[in-house]
């Protein structure tokens, strides 16, 4: 689960991580009042679930009250396009009014779970304000990584090593050590999957502040994070993904035109890969799960076809726990109820596969059967641009 910058900063503040003073605003008037309470100069920051807001015009320095009014008016209601939003952009409904900081230097700090080492990994870099992916690709030596043993937590000597690697001294060094220890506590205490501070700044006075904050949380742990669940902003999420979640389906919208229905994340990845290798573009990742019912399959079908970009559908099911005849019944029922005209390719393998194929053949519907994975991808790509009737 993702949250907004201002929400992440409130969480960090509760764990003792220093952040600039700020207030959220949904209207120009609220922005003006917030700036007056905080004290000028301030920064007006668009709140969307995406990075690169500054480059897209969503972050503005406002030294005067007139500037606050103008920038709040410009940003609120704008469709902000960044490298993470895609060309469609995101509608800005809130702005964060934050006290301007007397910045001396910008750095980067982030915490993630490194699944390769099975350790929480703390990263710092002198290249603050830049995309960390670009730094990792072009100058990986500028990123220091510290693997943390979760049984003992981040140790003071590790925090000091990170502060040394940034070249900090004196007051800034001491404040950075305190900052890193508190940031780790926030990460572990909230069951986060990511905390990213970019930039982490040192001010002329030696203060160390989280000038920006990005936080993602493990959905599987939200049951014990009752204070974080209400922070979810459904307006920032894909509507079809929300609908899929209600039905217990794992769905992620992509930019292609071939809908994919599979059971199992590994099979989903393989299916999308083979579609790409065959010259097609997957429109989604949809995993109906290992115990899918006919109703679940039908709901998955509806979600896939709700995407107007979908021009063909590939159903690729391996019957392990789920029976292929159950999937076939769901497909038949979905086609009857939805009355779709897009081509449908179905590959069934595993438990009751022959029974499932027989049901599809006897349905009288124009369904294209496939046997091998490559065969199914080639057939669905070949159907693009075609329409079929029942």
Write the topology of this structure:
Layout: H1 5-14, E1 22-25, H2 28-38, E2 42-46, E3 59-62, H3 65-75, E4 79-80, E5 90-91, E6 95-99, E7 103-114, E8 119-125, H4 132-138, E9 143-148, H5 156-165, H6 170-189, E10 192-203, E11 208-210, E12 214-217, H7 239-246, E13 250-253, E14 258-262, H8 265-277, E15 284-287, H9 294-305, E16 312-319, H10 324-338, E17 344-350, H11 353-361, E18 367-370, H12 373-382
Parallel strand pairs: 14-16, 16-17, 17-18
Antiparallel strand pairs: 1-6, 2-3, 2-6, 4-5, 7-8, 7-10, 8-9, 10-11, 10-12, 13-15
Helix pairs in contact: 2-3, 5-6, 9-10, 10-11
Could you characterize the architecture of this molecule?
The chain folds into 3 domains: 1-20 and 102-235, D-amino Acid Aminotransferase, Chain A, domain 1 (2-Layer Sandwich); 21-100, Dna Ligase, domain 1, CATH 3.30.1490.20; 238-382, Rossmann fold (3-Layer(aba) Sandwich). The protein has helices at residues 5-14, 28-38, 65-75, 132-138, 156-165, 170-189, 239-246, 265-277, 294-305, 324-338, 353-361, 373-382; strands spanning 22-25, 42-46, 59-62, 79-80, 90-91, 95-99, 103-114, 119-125, 143-148, 192-203, 208-210, 214-217, 250-253, 258-262, 284-287, 312-319, 344-350, 367-370. Strands 7, 8, 9, 10, 11 and 12 form a 6-stranded antiparallel beta sheet that branches. It has a 4-stranded antiparallel beta sheet with strand order 1-6-2-3, covered by helices on one side. It is 35% helix and 25% strand. The radius of gyration is 25 Å and the shape is elongated. It is α+β, with helices and mostly antiparallel strands and 390 residues long.
């Amino acid at each position: 689960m993702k949250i907004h910058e201002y929400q992440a900063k409130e969480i960090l503040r509760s764990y003792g991580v220093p952040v600039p003073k700020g207030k959220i605003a949904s209207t120009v008037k609220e922005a003006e009042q917030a700036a007056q309470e905080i004290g000028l100069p301030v920064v007006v920051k668009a709140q969307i679930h995406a990075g690169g807001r500054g480059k897209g015009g969503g972050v503005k320095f406002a030294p005067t009250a007139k500037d606050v009014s103008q920038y709040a008016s410009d940003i609120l209601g704008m469709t902000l396009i960044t490298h993470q939003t895609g060309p469609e952009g995101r509608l800005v409904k809130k702005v964060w009014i934050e006290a301007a900081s007397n910045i001396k230097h910008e750095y980067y700090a982030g915490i993630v779970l490194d699944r390769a080492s099975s350790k929480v990994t703390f990263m710092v870099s002198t290249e603050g304000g830049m995309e960390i992916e670009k730094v990792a690709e072009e100058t990986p030596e500028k990123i220091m990584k510290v693997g943390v043993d979760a049984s003992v937590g981040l140790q003071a000597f590790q925090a000091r090593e990170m502060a040394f690697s940034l070249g900090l001294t004196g007051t800034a060094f001491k404040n950075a050590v305190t900052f890193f220890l508190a940031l780790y506590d926030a990460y572990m205490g909230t069951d986060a999957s990511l905390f990213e501070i970019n930039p982490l700044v040192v001010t002329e006075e030696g203060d160390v502040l989280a000038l920006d904050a990005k936080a993602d949380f493990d959905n599987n742990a939200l049951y014990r994070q009752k204070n974080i669940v209400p922070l979810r902003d459904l307006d920032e999420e894909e509507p079809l993904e929300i609908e899929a979640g209600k039905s217990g389906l794992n769905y992620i919208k992509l930019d292609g035109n071939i809908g994919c229905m599979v059971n199992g994340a590994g099979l989903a990845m393989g299916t999308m890969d083979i579609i790409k290798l065959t010259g097609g573009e997957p429109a989604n990742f949809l995993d109906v799960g290992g115990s899918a019912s006919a109703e679940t399959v039908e709901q998955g079908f509806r979600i896939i076809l709700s995407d107007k970009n979908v021009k063909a559908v590939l159903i690729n099911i391996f019957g392990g726990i789920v029976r292929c005849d159950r999937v076939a019944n769901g497909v038949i029922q979905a086609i009857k109820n939805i009355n779709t005209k897009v081509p449908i390719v179905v590959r069934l393998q595993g438990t009751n596969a022959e029974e499932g194929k027989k049901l599809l053949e006897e349905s009288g519907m124009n369904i294209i059967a496939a046997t091998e994975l490559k065969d199914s991808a080639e057939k669905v790509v070949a159907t693009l641009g075609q329409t079929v009737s029942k």
